[in-house]
Design brief:
The chain has helices at residues 2-8, 22-26, 28-32, 51-62, 75-78, 92-97, 117-120, 132-145, 155-163, 172-182, 193-198, 200-211, 217-226, 229-233, 270-284, and strands spanning 12-15, 18-21, 41-45, 104-107, 124-129, 188-192. It has 295 residues and is α/β, with parallel strands linked by helices. Bound molecules: adenosine-3'-5'-diphosphate. Residues 45, 47-53, 134, 138, 141, 227-229, 232, 256-259, 263 line the site of adenosine-3'-5'-diphosphate.
Amino acid sequence: AMEQEAEIVQELGSLHGIPLYKSFIEGWPRVKAFQARPDDVLISTYPKSGTTWLSEIMDMIYHDGDVEKCRRDAIYNRVPFLELKAPGEMSGIEQLESTPSPRLVKTHLPVQLLPTSFWEKDCKIIYMARNPKDVAISYYYFHRMAKIHQDPGTKAEFLENFMAGKVPYGSWYDHVRGWWEKKQQKKILYLFYEDMKKDPRQEVQKILQFLGKELAEGIVDRILHHTSFQEMKKNPAANYETMLPILMDHSISPFLRKGVSGDWKNHFTVAQNERFDQHYQKLMAGSDLHFQMEV
Ligand code: A3P
């Protein structure tokens, strides 16, 4: 058991300057060479930005709101994680190879590291971004419950590391800005977690339009109900509770933790918030990308 546990925690290495779990870096050559199919749809996010939520919505759309079909497997198998590589587990690439088309693919890669095949095949991409204060808090709790991570230290320490980009997948600022700029030239639907909280129906309609798909009002209703926080939290196919307890400890913090915008207010001190705002303004200067810090 000791040896197994020792393999679960992953130190961070550097992938072309981006901090990433060492096991993921070992698997990188096959990720880089990944052959996308033209009808693959990519779900891209910085971690803790609503990836699982968007994935469940997409799988429901793909199955015309059939709740039973969307219980066929856990969300992390229904939407394979492209760059996932961990000892003793099937890699994301292996999972994708055995997934029939049309596939949904999840990634957290920054735009400059996306395997070129996605661009060559002109795949549709849906990016979801979330305000960095909520991402930082969500990421802190995720570091504690998901055992691939080293101890994140105190909240204050983690916040410093987050701002400095010294966390898996690197700088949030570079990630959201990089994908935002790419949207000028490529088929990318750029969504916000906060908009999805405010008006999920409108956001689902945007997704349908982007996919060129129409669904009856009643089916959209069912999708919205099934993908609400409360429903997903009690759904074993969506809440990650089927993962091995040695990989995720939901008693420390559940994967579906709070699911709101503005929870950072319960965690940031006034001083931390001021410092964060200053840093944010510096790093986001000159961009027309704006975030709602609460809804
Ligand atoms: P919190 O930790 O703030 O609760 P990801 O899937 O990218 O890892 O993101 C996880 C975050 O999305 C968690 O945020 C989780 O609770 C939230 N989330 C998951 N499903 C959700 C839903 N249906 N509605 C709102 N938030 C959801």
